[in-house]
Amino acid sequence: MNRHAIVIGGSLAGLCAARALSRFFEHVTVLERDALPVDTRCRRGVPQARHVHALLARGRTELEQLLPGFTARLREAGALEHDMARDFAVLRPYGWAPREESGIPSLFASRELVEATVRGMLAEHSNVSFEDRSDVAGLRVDPYGSGRITGVVLENGARDVFADLVVDASGARSPAPRWLREAGLAVPEETRVDSFCSYSTRWYEAPPPEERPDGWWWKGIWIDPRPGCEKRAAVLFPAEGGRWIVTLVGLARMPPPTTEAGFAEALGRLPSPLIAQAVDLAKPVSPVYGSRSTVNRLRHYERVRWPLQGFLALGDAVCSFNPLYGQGMTAAAVCARILERQLELLAPGHPELSVRFFQAQSDFMSGPWRLATSADFRFAETEGQRPAFSEWRTRYMDALIAASGDDPALRAVIAEVVHMLCPPERLFAADVVVRVLRQHMRRRLGGMPPFAAAAAAAPRLAAR
Ligand SMILES: Cc1cc2nc3c(=O)[nH]c(=O)nc-3n(C[C@H](O)[C@H](O)[C@H](O)COP(=O)(O)OP(=O)(O)OC[C@H]3O[C@@H](n4cnc5c(N)ncnc54)[C@H](O)[C@@H]3O)c2cc1C
Q: What's this model's pTM, rounded to 2 decimal places?
């Protein structure tokens, strides 16, 4: 049988889904509204690509599983590889993090380069085709009343495309719930948690190594907000082409400036001047871009009472996170692998495919969702449905982070959870709780303030 699958949206989730589907369907068509660039240009449908994008270790592994050779290809295209714990100057609430080998090397590249690399590798699969400038306007439903989705309608009803399976990967603003309602089908409930966080980003040409002052060892900088200070954080990430991406984050209704002067001034008011000093030596190569697309939004397809047939959704179209925690691309890759697994277990035409996939996806998503939304509820301004025990979790997380300043084992556990290498529950395991308590007892008995730690010396730039 010649089976055909359609993927709506040719961004990261859509590309990963298409790769998973290509193993089980004779043909996979990716329908993308934008004109797909031949290079790494930013396109309209993915405006967030202008902002810093961290690829977590789990995401890298899953992409490597989907597309063997992914890391090598991204590196060949210019991505850099660093161990953040060793190569970044990281200012935590307790002070500068000690420099150490974490054993979790990360890839640093623009979001455009990651997408272009994945797209290029996918295009090598002869049963996958891309139809760009194809704006999907609705779903085709079986005219005989079975409720089965049988394809999509392109903009203005110009053309119908029929398929055995339609996968929605059209991003956080996915119109699929509206399309399902219009077709008289079950619509997923939606949970939102908004901590009113915003991003401002500017790109720079990094100064060449010979022009950098003495004492400059770091490849990137990470500045957490300090308790009691302005609710601002910032990062400086390296990217291909000798560039830096500097993103300033405003937390809890504190949007960072999007003017050039305001951006520079706000960098100077961070808990450390290190990023401001670094960009003074660099050449700006972009305007300042802003984004307020940071709400956590979860569409509960796993709860729809009337199982959808012939339709799946994944990526931001199902769950988008506050990007502060860098989970989106990784979650998209993991969910594509979940789809691959379900197809292995059930085969493409199985009537329970969507029910089983949505349930498995939801089981996985609950971890990153809890992590992001619990962390967001540390701000009084956050609105939405509070996860269970979030106040208790916030207090415990503060204690854990403070204790980690003096305990490499705790730093290792945090890194594994942040990189999705183990589930968030690991942070609450007995051995971790005991270490946290032990550190706090030690501090109390030693008469040290709760945030004092054996922090590293502050990195400084010597005058040139
Ligand atoms: C400011 C910001 C910073 C972020 N930082 C990180 C980070 O550090 N790390 C990380 O992992 N993630 C981050 N993310 C999230 C990450 O960008 C997404 O999770 C990731 O790109 C996967 O998204 P997606 O493919 O599901 O959707 P999107 O990337 O939004 O793509 C949706 C695609 O569907 C297309 N489309 C939409 N409607 C239609 C239609 N009707 N017909 C045809 N095509 C359509 C669009 O043109 C687009 O190509 C960040 C997000 C934001 C907003």
A: 0.94
